[in-house]
Amino acid sequence: MTYTISQVAERMGVTVYTLHYYDKEGLLPFVERNRNGARVFKDSDFGWLDTITTLKNTGMPIKQIRQYIEWVMEGDSTIAQRFECIKKQKKFVEKQLEELKNYAELLDYKEWYYETAVAAGTTAIHANCRTAKRSMPRIIK
Q1: Domains located in the chain, CATH noted
Q2: Most buried one in 17, 31, 120, 121, CB count within 10 A?
Q3: Is 141 a residue whose pLDDT tops 90?
């Protein structure tokens, strides 16, 4: 079965503009074109598109995604490069997760801070509270 760019955009939850951008940036070399030059997507292209979307959502730069796609299309001679690329991106994502965990801890603290302040009717309740000052990750008012 084949799909138009509009059908693919709808199915992938992206805009047609996004797919045009990906094509312009060289991320869609696997997509065929019909005799009029229009992109014709196949079922097998969705795996590629999912990979592109995943890598993009992990923060991988377009240039690196393009390189990764080129390596995949080159075949087995680039397995080591692809492996290193994915390891590097995974490390980057793990760092992001750690940062998000820290942000969540700060928000937990702020949630407690304001919950107790709301119950007391004032933030002054925390002015001399050693526990609050000691457990406070950092101050955000």
Answers
A1: 1-74 (1.10.1660.10), 90-141 (no CATH)
A2: 31
A3: no
Model-level pTM?
0.78
State the residue for tokens 């690196």. 64
What are 39's strand-pairing partners? 33
**φ and ψ of 136, to 5 deg:** -70, 120
Q: How far apart are CA 52 and CA 64, in angstroms?
A: 11
Alpha-carbon span 17 to 23, nearest angstrom? 10
- Helices 62-74 and 79-120, interaxial angle, to 10°? 140
pLDDT digits (tens, 9 = 90+) for 6-32: 999 999 999 999 999 999 999 999 999
If we measure between CA atoms, which residue out of 90, 21, 102, 2 comes closest to residue 54? 90
Burial class (CB in 10 A: 0-12, 13-18, 19+), 113: buried
C-beta neighbour count of 110 within 10 angstroms: 16
